[in-house]
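Next comes this protein.

***
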Amino acid sequence: MIRQLHIIGGGLAGCEAAWQAARSGVPVILHEMRPLKRTQAHETGQLAELVCSNSFRSDDHHASAIGLLHEEMRRAGSLVMSAADRNKVPAGAALAVDRLGFSRAIEDTLRATPNIEIRRNEVTAPPEEAYAVIIATGPLTSAPLAEAITAFTGSQSLAFFDALAPIVHMDSIDLSQAWFQSRYDKPGPGGTGKDYINCPLDQSQYEHFVNALLTGEKTSFKEWERNTPYFEGCLPIEIMAERGPQTLRHGPMKPVGLTNPHRPEKPYAVVQLRQDNALGTLYNLVGFQTKLKHGEQTRIFRMIPGLQNARFARLGGIHRNTFINSPRLLDGRLRLRTQPRLRFAGQITGVEGYVESAAMGLLAGLFAAAEWRGDAELPLPPPTSAMGALLQHLTVGAQADTFQPMNVNFGLFPPIPAPLQADGRRARGKAKAPARKHAYCARALADMENWLKQVSKICGQAMPGTGATASGEPVSEMAVETGHGGKDAAP
């Protein structure tokens, strides 16, 4: 068996995985079916084409979970982050890129990297002769490969669209209005009879809420999503509301079997929230998948008593997608439990967002490189880091029965106490949230340093770590090697 690593998919995750593995000495074959076979969303045949927004979101690594993920990836020598940094366009506090320059920088770098062969071909099943395979085909996985994945994972383990309900940070729910209780106090498996948070509405509040759902501005499917089906089990809540004013009271908002301990009268309707992660820091709104625009969701869902000050870790949506049930299928190093030579990376693992997808590619490439070298198994990134928290959510933290794609957010991190202020007291009120975010980020970057040292030793590659430019900002290894705008920089 030839000890090559085959990577299927030339998007952000596949390219990042190829880069990380190849610079550890692993021979890599990167398969990309475009331009031989086009998709409904891509416009070019370039690797790492951005098909939606050109924004990587906030770049603030002191107070933003996604900005923290940017920084961790820079310190791990990320190809994607280096290409993004070298192709920035003005976007305020966000990191946005010139699409063509970004894709060209990645493709040019991979073409010039020893150990990487780029093959333009459609792969319909993982190559039998391959020593190891990373599947990083994303939401537009071709039908033959999707059928092959279904065959070796099971028909219930591959989804073709996501139906996302909003997720709320538990500590932003007002429990002076809401309460813990399961319907009829019945405990589910491993439950206590108080497994849901319940938010009550009286008749007037319910009618105003339904009217807001009906009149709220909705998003529409993209052209290539138009055949995305609505299943009865996951209809958008506004579609249910269109069927009649009482539909929601007899569906996800039915008040039966619940008693409000704060008020003697029975609620007219109830919104239930269910625990979404093992840490108990996130709760999802049960049955609230939606096509409402994000701003409308925030406005309308804060009309619900108990959620007036809700902080949303994720807003709802329904999209064409292809992703596996990672908590059920993958081990902690992104290997398929039943066939460990196969790894998954990127959006197909159930992450949302460009950078989250690339981060899973980075980890898959490093895990595969350590395995190929045979020196030692790479330790998992610390769960206190953005990469570690996201990986842990995918593989052990999320509920397999209700698994849906997720962005990185602080609700995935192990909780941290409110930091001490200068006067020695814990931060409270408006000062609490920013102080805690800063503490999360500081803890993450400190813990990442030790992990990156272990990566350098096991994978045989230097990590930029805290190496800095004249501005004091850490840079990726590609930027260190080529310089910003030097003769080897991508145009």
Summary: The first strand starts at residue 5 and ends at 8. The domain at 5-163+321-482 is CATH 3.50.50.60 (FAD/NAD(P)-binding domain).
